[in-house]
Amino acid sequence: MVTEVDRSAHPLTAEDRCDRCSARAVVQTVMLGGGALLWCGHHFSTYADALNGLGAEIVCDLRSRETA
Ligand SMILES: [Zn+2]
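That is the input. Now the predicted structure with zinc ion docked in place:
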């Protein structure tokens, strides 16, 4: 029996804030270890390369809908 990590993320709402600042979160990523992080557009761009290097997975991306 395979135990799967529950990666189901809740949809981002206007209540969600970037983990680096207080701006509205528009991207949610899940790390390989399972921890979820929220990002505003600005901080996601800043950390995108690092996140890619860590194998983080984008589970929610509202950037196409929101103009940051
Ligand atoms: Zn931010």
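The mean pLDDT is 86.
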